[in-house]
Amino acid sequence: MSGTDLSHRIDVGALFRAHYPWLCNHLHQYLGASAGVEDIAAETFVQLLESPSLTPIREPRALLTTIARRLVFEGWRRRNVERRHLDQLQHLDQAPTPSPEELAQINQTLHGLDRSLERLPSKVRKTFLLSRIDGLTYPQIAAELGISQRSVSVYMTRSQALCARHSANHSWNPTLTRSA
């Protein structure tokens, strides 16, 4: 561990001690009495700890709020994906009702794919989610993220290749995927 890593850990530890209760309170006001508030607050500091230490943080509460809100939105998106897939399962007239084991396998596969997507760089992951979850077009994604349409295309190719690799390595029910 380098001196920079140690000082970054010490800085994040000090931020945690100084701002964790405030962040929990802020999230309680934002989300209500949710049981996951403390988890989101803790994950916020984990993300900060895992980020490179480039410059001193001038506005820690603004940064913590931004990270926490991103985590909240990602959680909502995950739940929306799960809800859409469960809705699709309920509306499939010709397909037999999946067993609890099949539902568990589908859920496990979705969580595995989500973990795989988490390993992608932020803009690649955001591009994929904006396309597949929010249904935005490439020009809309480019405008949203401030990148070129060519970059959107490259990022989508990269994320779809990851999904294809994930699908090849795991049992995946093709009736649950959205067409490109």
TrEMBL record:
Protein's GO biological process: DNA-templated transcription initiation
Keyword annotations: Sigma factor, Transcription, Transcription regulation
Membrane-crossing residue ranges in chain numbering: none
Domain RNA polymerase sigma-70 region: 15-80
Listed GO MF terms: DNA binding; sigma factor activity
Residues annotated as domain RNA polymerase sigma factor 70 region 4 type: 113-159
Record keyword Transcription present: yes
Gene3D superfamilies registered for this protein in UniProt: 1.10.1740.10, Winged helix-like DNA-binding domain superfamily/Winged helix DNA-binding domain
Similarity comment: Belongs to the sigma-70 factor family. ECF subfamily.
Name used for this protein in its record: Sigma-70 family RNA polymerase sigma factor
